[in-house]
Amino acid sequence: MKCPGQDTRYWKPEDVYELECARCGRMVEFFKTDGRRNCPGCGNRIENPKVSLGCAQWCEHAVACLGYDPKTVRLKKSADTSLATKLTDAVKAEFRGDRKRIDHALAVLEHARAIMSVEGGRPRVVMSAALLHDIGIPEAERKHNSSAARYQEEEGPPVARRILKDAAVDPVTIEHVCDIVGSHHSAGKIDTLEFRIIWDADWLVNLPGMFPDRGEDELKSIIDSTFKTETGKVRAYNMFLGQELQRTRDAER
User: Fold this and answer.
1) How, if at all, do strands 36-38 and 45-47 pair?
2) Where are the domains positioned within the chain?
3) Among the four residues 33, 67, 73, 208, which has the most C-beta atoms within 10 Å?
4) Among 49-63, 79-93, 197-211, 237-251, whose mean pLDDT is lowest?
5) Hey, what's the torsion of the CAs at 22, 27, 31, 32, to 10 degrees?
6) What superfamily would CATH give domain 69-252?
């Protein structure tokens, strides 16, 4: 008899869902117990951020039941999940319930995680910088009566440093994140992989509002000249041009 906790006969419709492949944009079906799957389109390995293991978290037969050890999935994600929760709460507090700016930070985090899953990078740096990249806006508006990019970059790092210290983040990560926060508009002081991921994730959220009426050729030129990772460009092509980057490039050769 199959364990009722893992038997799909007892599942609800929301226990089976689709996640987007960050590399090719294909939607891949996941069961709630899947820790990861490979995209059938491009072979990219996709981690399941919504994995729900139920009784498998403590059952001695979990490995035989699932085909992998669920403890390794939980242990790997637990520390980063805790930090993400702390930083999200801090962002909400700093923005004082400003839903638009909070949603923007969370959207950048989602894109950054997807890009990182393909490009690599240090998860804590990427996650922290994604959530905190605009954290200087309230102080910029208070001091300068403006949220201009240069004021965000000036006021953001001290606020980010305070939040990260309160969350007991290590000094090396803090400095890296603060460097990204202090350059996320100008790209003047840093060019690490983690910075490039945040740069692209932010552009993926901002591009429609910045260039609402541009034609396809102009958007293509903007994407090619602006994005700093191949995965970011792929997502931009899929989102804004409705075409796959590699196929477009192959056709141009």
Assistant:
1) antiparallel
2) 1-68, 69-252
3) 33
4) 49-63
5) 50
6) Hypothetical protein af1432 (1.10.3210.10)
